[in-house]
Amino acid sequence: MSTATLPDRTTGTSGTARQRPSFVGTGLLVVGAVYCLVPVVWVFMASTKSSSELFSTFTYAPSGNLFSNISDLSSYRDGLFWRWMVNTALYAGVGAGLSTVVSAMAGYAMAKFRFPGRGVLFNVLLAGVLVPGVVLAVPQYLLFAKLGLTNTYWAVLLPSLISPYGIYLARIYVSAAVPDEVIEAARTDGAKDLRVFSSIVMPMMVPGLVTIFLFQFVAIWNNFMLPFVMLGDDKLFPVTVGLSGLLNQGSQQPAMYTLVITGALLSILPLLALFLLLQRFWQVDLAAGAVKS
Amino acid sequence: MRRSLRGSLVTLAVSALLLSACGGSSDSDSASGDEAVKPGEKVELNFWSWAPEMDKTVEAWNDTHPDIHVTVNKQDGGDTAVTKLLTAIKAGSGAPDLMQAEYQALPTLVGSGALADIKDDIGDDVQGHFAEGVWSAVTLGTDAVYAVPQDSAPLMFFYRADVFEKYDIDVPTTWDEYAAAAKKIHDEDSKQFLGTFSSNDAGLFAGLTQQAGASWWGIDGDAWSVAIDSDASKKVASFWGGLVEDGVIDNTPMYTPAWNSALNKGTQVGWVSAVWAPGVLAGNAGDTAGKWKVAPLPQWNAGENVTGAWGGSSTAVTSQSKHKAAAAQFAAWLNTSAEGVKALATVSNVYPADQQNSAAALTESPEFFENQDDFYDVAASVAGTVNSFTYGPNTNVAYSAFNDAFGKAAQSKKASSFTEALATMQSQTVEDLKSNGFTVK
Amino acid sequence: MTSITSEPNSGTVRRVPDQTPPRRRSRVPKAPYAFVLPAVFLFVFSIAIPILYTAYLSLRTVKVEGLGLGPGARTEVWAGLENYAGTLTDRDFLSSVLRVLGYGLVVIPVMLGLALLFALLLDSVRVRARRFSRLVIFMPYAVPAVISSLLWGFLYLPAVSPFTYAADQVGVTLPQPMAPGLVLFGIANIAVWGGVGFNMIVLYTALRSIPTELYEAARIDGCSEVQIAWRIKVPIVIPSLIMTSVFGMITTLQVFAEPTVLRPLTNNISTSWSPLMMIYRDAFTRNDIYSASATSVVLAVATFVLSFGFLRLVQNRAFAQENR
Prior knowledge:
By secondary structure, chain A is mainly α.
């Protein structure tokens, strides 16, 4: 699994006695895994049910309506759901990508340069972690409205580009993964600062960049308030806001539970695939800042 | 370098702050002007609505009005669209031209300057399409007209006819009979309830007190009065509190998966709701189609014939619209033309407030009630009996106070805490009005 | 820390080392400023200005004339510290703060305890099914809180819950996770479910940076796996635990999505259950953005005070090698 970045300790030189499997340990770990699977399995099962089965049959009993549910969802308002999926990919993908670059640049500057204001700047940026998105949503809306940017892609993308946490992680990764000597050598060869950054520093911190990317990706995908407040046109919604709308229909209409559950399943799947693909990069050492390579 | 960087950051921040802080009032002034439309130019209107299939309903207008094109942006139901509109008004831009607004939200919206007065932009004959009570909801008792009524939602009583037949119960015509029926049903099968008291639906509770003669707010010259804990409201609160205390009706909220399941499984066998209920029942309890019937709401005094309302909404033109006249023209068409009303009733599934065209539009019972031919006759017979009711400028505060106070009361299952909850609502609502500088009598 | 501290602090890259005399000030490099510029610009635009604006709004309020119906009947005026006085004396606010602190005392130890347990198990050679478990336990991190709360809500409601159903079949009555006394634990469970995997990865990463030789030596001395875990591994990951606690604390004080999604399902979650829900209610339902702003500022300051000590501590540890 993690062979590219971590030597697997199981294949070490330990004696056979210590290789004896621990039933208690394995049991505990499997119980933890099962606990984490409970709601996920439920959403798989529930999305195979028709709307009346959803509320009348045993929760974990599957049924055969998955494909008709998917086709109902796809035909809801001419395939609006898929538009939401594309929007989500755009907000989270582009947002996280650009945010990673911004964080890497800032992190690099703060890890490898000494400059007046560095300490203050870092503290101020980091204090941004303390401010919850719910609190920022309204003033951000009022500010964006002045600029005429509400109800556009920019309204969601721009505030997603700054990630105090990403800058924090980037600083850790750069100082851990990029030795000063390498940068110095490049400079001696006459490389400019930007070139040092793009062709020496960035490649050396790829695992860190992937982590920051995923981190910010999840953060954007989790941020419900920002798009909820900023967007009026449902063609611009990300999938979370769209699904929540299907659920909160007001008192005069039934909530579309079947569509919401099927939509929830379909929207989690791509993210799970992304995680599977990139999981070997997932190492976050918050305290020591050590990424072994 | 250090100083200049810090200095410029502060300048940037402060100037942006001033920009955002001071722009508000001047912007909204300039935005409220109606821009003249040149002949042959196409007007684009945005319409925020949460009614189902509103975009299809609007197609009929777009087909016949090539110079005024209306685009529907579907919104979440309930408070969220109002919130978004108020935020956009505060920001000075971002509001749509037209907005579906529930009657109870109108005083708040008008007070925030969110809605335009369209009195001069709609025809004189529009008023004649609506019952007096409905019309006063869109004028707020002033000379202005802030919206065109769209749908009305008189309360009725929905029940499982098969269950009533099985236990040999007559359809209740008074609340006493309702209580007796609820007890009988729960005695026959301890899992069955004739209803639930839901702390999530202040609108329903307000409608029930409306039937009993309450009006939560009132205008007294230049002052507001608040009568949430009036005797009429107390009567309603202790009635439902008593039923919950006796355990003959349920105390869990409506519109939850548990409630859907109970409707579907037949453990919730009655529902006090409004005329739009068939759509909700069909969506949540499809298996019980053809088993439900509707009757007028039970009365407090035998022989009376009054009801309240739960929901109902209007089409308003926002103060930020640059094409107020065109927008008002559309609002009038949607809610008073034969074509618009028919589309509202058959495509968007709402019960039109228009009295002249709705009979022609509503000829057949909803599919879910195909066992009851006279569904819309019952509806029409109660639609004119809605008691008058005044909503206040902080209805939203009263409603959120309801959620918390009655949530606790429903959980405690004590009739006395229901009337205490009413007092809590009253004091919170009055306090909020006062702290905002309203005169309260 | 372990892998970097050994590096010599050459300082060659730093053009202006600490001991630089003042006369060389003019040679301050432009490059680092260019690198931090995008971040600074975005920070000012998306975070700093909105925060300043919130602070401004917290000092304002709306005054109404007459019935408040005509245009211009509501005007924004200075309120001084009125909104703050209102927030700090609001019993709902104070009880929501206490409730959330209690919630934090449940969530953080349970979440980090489980995360540490799983991380140690993942790091143990004797445990099987590690690859599978690591992936599965981490998976909930990919599920947005809005969706995970909806899923758990279904599992909590007695009428549709498979657990209640199964318990009924065998004649057992289960405690209801949304009952008055238990709803805090019901919400905590969702947070633990969503957060344990991420923290597990953090701690696991820290464990993998421990040199294997340490264990070998301990094993030769006759230590059992459990003793190694408790005496060697746990002390070494304590810095990571401190960091995860800080971030756990910040997220806990900001709990919002889970109770908001569950609220319509039960009578037992009020609209001011957590401070952030109250801010949301005031700003969005009650349209009183001014009180909401004051409450936001109070909450942000409280969060800052609580986590400030931790942050300093962490910085000193994490960047010790740079700042020396």
